[in-house]
Design goal:
Length: 95
């Protein structure tokens, strides 16, 4: 899946066990991240896919949505099915 999610839909997915993953660099993540997100930088994602549960929805974000879009495609190529590129961190910072 792709596209914008409302704050309510985002919260509903998270309440139902979705995984929120920030693919920005560790430095960017440390400057501010969405509540409950884990940081798996794009440059290390291929070595850390084992920490992502394939049976739960995956919500990906970055600064603009470009990196999270690439990670979404990568995860889908590995067999993940319920993957969202929610795009920019700033869209959901105040949810």
């Amino acid at each position: 899946m792709n596209g914008e999610l409302s704050c309510e839909k985002l919260q509903q997915l998270l309440n139902n066990g979705a995984q929120l993953i920030d693919v920005r660099s560790t430095m960017e993540f440390n400057q501010g991240a969405l509540n409950g997100a884990i940081n798996l930088p794009i440059n290390s994602i291929q070595h850390n896919t084992g920490v992502i549960d394939q049976n739960k929805p995956v919500l990906l974000y970055c600064r603009s949505g470009a990196r999270s879009g690439m990670v979404k495609n990568f995860l889908i190529s590995l067999g993940f099915q319920d993957v969202y590129n929610i795009g920019s961190y700033s869209k959901y910072a105040f949810c």
